[in-house]
Structure formats: C-alpha cells, structure tokens
Design goal:
metal ion binding, about 35% helix, alpha/beta, two-stranded antiparallel ribbon, Agmatinase-rel, binds manganese (II) ion, globular, Arginase, Chain A, Agmatinase, Ureohydrolase
Length: about 290
Amino acid sequence: MFYKPDMMDALADYDAARYVIFGVPFDATSSYRPGSRWAPDAMRKASANFETYNEFFDIDFEDLLIHDAGNLEPYSSVDETLEELHLAVKPIARDGKIPIMLGGEHSLTYPCVKACAEEADEDIGFVVMDAHFDLREEYGGIRNSHACVSRHVRDDITDTYVTIGVRSGPKEEWVYAKENGLKYYTSDDVREMGIKQVIAEVKEYLGCKKIYLSLDMDALDPAYAPGLGTPEPFGLTDIDVREIIRALAPISVGFDVVEIAPEYDNGISALLGTKLLREFIAAHAASER
Ligand code: MN
Ligand code: MN
C-alpha cells in the first residue's frame, strides 16, 4: 500500500461535502525564507494526532461531511497559479460549500476571496490575522506578492476589512492604514483590550456581513509557531487566535491557513495550524446545528 496523507476525518466525497479542504504547495514569492509549499502535506500528517471529538462544541468530526480534494498543481509563475486557483475555488463556492485552503504563501488568499465574493449573494468582508499589513501595491516588482494580498483584496473586492495581530510594516503602510481609516488591531491592542473586547468590536463593525477569514500563521507569536516564512516576535497567543476563529467561523464563507514553513521547526506550527483549522470547522458546524 502507498501512503496517501489524507486529512484525517475528511472522508466525504465532493458531492456530499459541506467543507472542501485543498492544498496549494506554492511559495515562489516568499521574501525571507520559502518553505510553505511543504505545509499542506505537513498539516495532513499532523491531523492524525487529533481525536475526532471536539468537547467544546460537542462536535464529532466523524459526523461531519469533509472532503480533501488534494493539492492543486501550481505553476511556476504566481499569476498563473492564482488564475488556476480562482478557477478551482469558484465551483466549490458556487456549490454552496465552504472552501478551506492549506497554503502555501499568503498571495494565494486573493483568488479564494475573489471566488467566494463572486459566488456570494451579498457583499462579503475580509478578516485577516497577520503580523503584517500586506498593504503594498507591489513588492520586489511583483504585484501578486504575498506582501500585497490585503491591499489587492481591499482595492478590488471589499472595503470591509479588518486585520488583527499586525505589528510589522514600513512607515508608509502604517500611514496608509491610518489615512484610509482601516480597521486594525495590533497584537499590543489585543493584549491591552483583551481578545473578547476586540472580537466584540469586530463583530459590531461587520454588522451582519458574511466574511472570508484568513489566518497568516505569523499572526501568532513565533513562540507558538516558529515554522514560518517571516516570523515576527511579540505576537498573538494560540488562545487569542482560537477565540477569533471560534467567534468568526460561523459567519465565514471561506477560510485558509497560510505561511507555515514546516522545515524550520519540529512540527508544532503545522500541528497548531491544523488544530486551528479543526476549530474553524467545529465552530462553523456547531453554528449550523
Ligand atoms: Mn500575510
Ligand atoms: Mn504575515
């Protein structure tokens, strides 16, 4: 028998599935250290560690309809990869399923948000957890760099945008964020206000809008997730991020976990990313009971 690293408990076929997991092993625009191409399979492997039962939500993954579609074969160029990804996510969103991407780098989020926004009956917002603003128009001559994803989502798809955990960016990005009245919470804001207060404000800002939720793992402090493309100290805790996901999963039409680079640690970043992904699914499924 050959070993095929399926995501544990992703046993439904596509037609029956409510949640469609897929990996995109692509990290070509990584600016500091690449390696997120290895994350999708590392996360599938890590998933074998977890029990199927989630006590907090009283959800058993064995009762959920989850499909693992495997990995999208990336192109060498970022633009072609994003185009192909957009085409792949459109039907998932159109079929009323929840697409869940295992990155790969953060640029991959853009076509997922776009596909979900195009297929939604109403305007959707974008909530991202990230150490970085990702508000540059281009980076290193590449428009679709991982460092630009939030800028393009805001410019092209939705003004309803919140970023949580931000603590790094050139001065121009901070000025841009302030001048444009962007809704952002630094990791220090989270520590000072408390995550519950931050979530309450975010929910009030979103009103009854649905969102696409994106987790750039570097939102977390490198103490929790050291296996990253661009680690940044003084970050969010694992519990902060879990709280955000638990609170926002029920209003999400799509989700991703990006920027884990498993070669730089002993496996804990992929483990945590996978657990957070399972919290997303459990929280979403509990809201539909
Ligand atoms: Mn990012
Ligand atoms: Mn980041």
